[in-house]
Write a structure and sequence with these properties.
The chain is an alpha+beta fold. About 20% of the residues lie in helices and about 35% in strands.
Amino acid sequence: MNNGLITSANHGPMTNIWRNYRLLHVELAALAFVLGLTPLTAVGQKSCPLTEAQSKKAVAAFGKIADFVLNEPRCVNCHGGVNPHIASIGLNPQDPTEPASLKIHGGGVIQKSTNGTIEAECMDCHDHMANKRDGSPTKQWMTAAPFHNFLDKDATTLCRQFKKSLGSAQEFLGHIKDDNGGNNFAQTAFNGDRGLDPDQYLDPAGPNYVAPKQPSISHDAFVKLGQDWISAMGGKFQGDENCGCELTHDKWSGMIHYAIEEKGDDGLKTGPGTSFEWSASSATKVTWSFTNGVGTAQYSVQNAHQYIGWHAASPPSSELRSSSKSTGSGQGTFPATVDVAMSQGNYYVYAQLQLHLAGESVPNNSGNPIIGKQHIETCDSVDGCSGADTADILALPLPPGPPLIGENARSESRFRHHDSEERRAWVF
């Protein structure tokens, strides 16, 4: 793509065909500040009064909480897993700072409120939530705010999020018990019925039956996990956001998330009796997770491109058709290392894949691991169809390429790479 001109190796320049092309580019990162990388005062950290034994016990206790909430659909779906405002999975075209949805909303697309209020349409289906602590009904169904999402987060990142957003042990325990007496999403989750209207969706003989599915552990067992974590910290939140969440490391620990999605489609009549249409989509998701400078890089790539051409022939009742469809997918997880430095509010992140596993080299192309294959199938009305794998799908370096340099401005930063500038949202 160059100055609005889309070119094709087989069909030459194609102008004035852009109708729908979107590029969504968002990076969400939860960073764990590193003790020893810079002085504590440089990053505004507090001390952690826990002993090493207490820290180990607290980290282990929260690990059990994270294992549950990060894998339980009743938790994840409301905390980023389902975006009711889009028709598919993936990023939201209108707000790429939202997490990439994992599942399609069963109730269809819900129009997002433009004035900051809660969408009343949600209550058309989700009107059977657990009562509040005082016995009054809960009448506000909603998904969690994007900055409270659980997607692509490890235990440390989630632990820091809980401490930052809830502020105290009392608030945390009240939240997981009954949302501190407010809208009772906690008990609703453990009821397993998604708060759905029983007349519409919970009648096994009805046409819209949605089978309830309770979490893998009881509500009491989950609250006990929370109490164990708080007890391990001496009965209250201690120190900074890392305290009780992570052991002190010499090197950087945390996560970096990168997601990019592209979509486009159109058609064009190029002359008498001749036309074509095309569509393209791709989605790339990368999650880097590190503890003490060592961790993994997980890649997922999906793409599809299609071209269909039509040309009138003689006699007029006949026609010539040609098409080309290319699809690709790739997944891979690789060992990785990271170094982070800080200078004048900027974070310099140097991440690198390790291409040797158990003494053997990972299959790669110019240092980029091979994670899948691109397949293309071509058809025409004369010769029929043929297909073949044509290219490798690679795990490319983390965009925009190390080092990442960001100006810390609360939750948003701008990053420059050569002559380009891209906006990303960072969660600290």
